[in-house]
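[User] I wish I could look at a protein chain and see how it folds. I have put the entry right below:
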Amino acid sequence: MNKTTNAVIFLIITAILWSTGGVLIKFISWNPIAIAGMRSAIASLIMIAVVGKPKLTWSRVQIGGAIAYMATVVLFVLATKLTSAANAILLQYTGPIYVALFGRWYLGERTSRLDWITIGVVIAGMTLFFMDSLTVDGMLGNCIAIASGVAFAWLALFLRKQKAERPEDSIILGNWLAALIALPFMVSNGMPSIGSWMGLLLLGVVQLGLSYILYARAIRHVTALEALLIPVVEPILNPVWALLLIGEKPGKYAIIGGIIVLSAITLRGILVLKFQPRNVPTIQ
């Protein structure tokens, strides 16, 4: 397999690992911001153990990536608390729109007509998927969720900008920032139970640590837009875990919406491989 194919596989595995977050968080009795901070602290240790100590250059792109990462993980938790989970995940995954808008200016990566069509179909499918859960309540939470989508987009752009360096360093630094911001919430809410600690370890090691190691390696060999479009299957996989672990069955619209999203991403991948020449600079 070539590097691009490996990168796509890494992104799919990343989406699977990310998708376990919702179920794991349900088992943890602790402040949501504290959960986000401890999860990031644990993830930073795992990443250092795997990729080594971060090489902090304090460049604009490295710091930008760290801030975008911190904002992504913290704002999403806040949005989930202040609005419905469906609103939060749907608005965060508007990220590909911002990458499509800024990618050519910042990275020189052109957005094709096929990309725009795929973005439109994916957002339509996700809207259908969450139709039963969407609400107009929680306007502040909705605005924060939109901000998390912008942060998610810039995370992909900043990490892609570091394709010839070590994007993992931005992520480690971002985890430290998230843990630092969450520290007051961790201190003021006491320590979680032993059972909650098991959930936190799984979140930090599997759902965040290992997933972002794969994500950082994948983004060297795909465009920033692909780095957000392929993992968009993450929210579709969340109900799968809910069905398997707690018996929650998705509704008819959720099934149809999920099929639309998965079909759009798969079809785009097939068309790109078959008809469009790849022009994605990678590191050796």
The mean pLDDT is 86.
